[in-house]
């Protein structure tokens, strides 16, 4: 996300001229920038950094963890047993197991 400044239109033109074309969307005080590929987002971040543009990055969806909800499990099931089974038997990388009541 790029911080919107007084001359943000010129900034967007400069970004599209020097990097791969990006899609942009106004979002309050920021501009969302979307690239087609992960490699293009890395080169865009490098470009923004070298040109001292105020920005921050939200990681690509491919790097976000997957959240899973399991229904119908017995209430007495120990979450540690479930976590151990997911890790050892199915080789999942488990960050957190929570039992909803």
Describe the fold and architecture:
- The protein is α+β, with helices and mostly antiparallel strands and 101 residues long.
- The chain has two domains: 2-62; 65-100, no CATH class.
- 34% of the residues lie in helices and 12% in strands.
- It is built from three helices and three strands, in the order βαββαα.
- The protein has a three-stranded antiparallel beta sheet, with no helix packed on it.
- The chain starts with a strand and ends in a 13-residue tail after the last helix.
- The mean pLDDT is 89.
Quick description:
By secondary structure, the protein is of the alpha+beta class.
Jot down its keywords:
alpha+beta, 2 domains, 34% helix, 101 residues, 3 helices, 3-stranded antiparallel β-sheet, Pre-C2HC domain-containing protein, elongated
Task: Give the terminus-to-terminus CA distance.
Answer: 37 Å
**Average predicted local confidence, pLDDT:** 89
Strand tally: 3
Gyration radius over CA: 21 Å
Unreliable residue runs: none
N-to-C SSE string, H for helix and E for strand: EHEEHH
Structural class: alpha+beta
How many helices does DSSP assign?
3
Give, in spatial order, the strands making up the sheet with the most strands: 1-3-2
Number of domains: 2
Approximate helicity band: 25-40%
For the sheet with most strands, the description reads:
3 strands, antiparallel
The rough form would be described as elongated
Strand content: 5-15%
Protein name: Pre-C2HC domain-containing protein
Organism: Araneus ventricosus (Orbweaver spider)
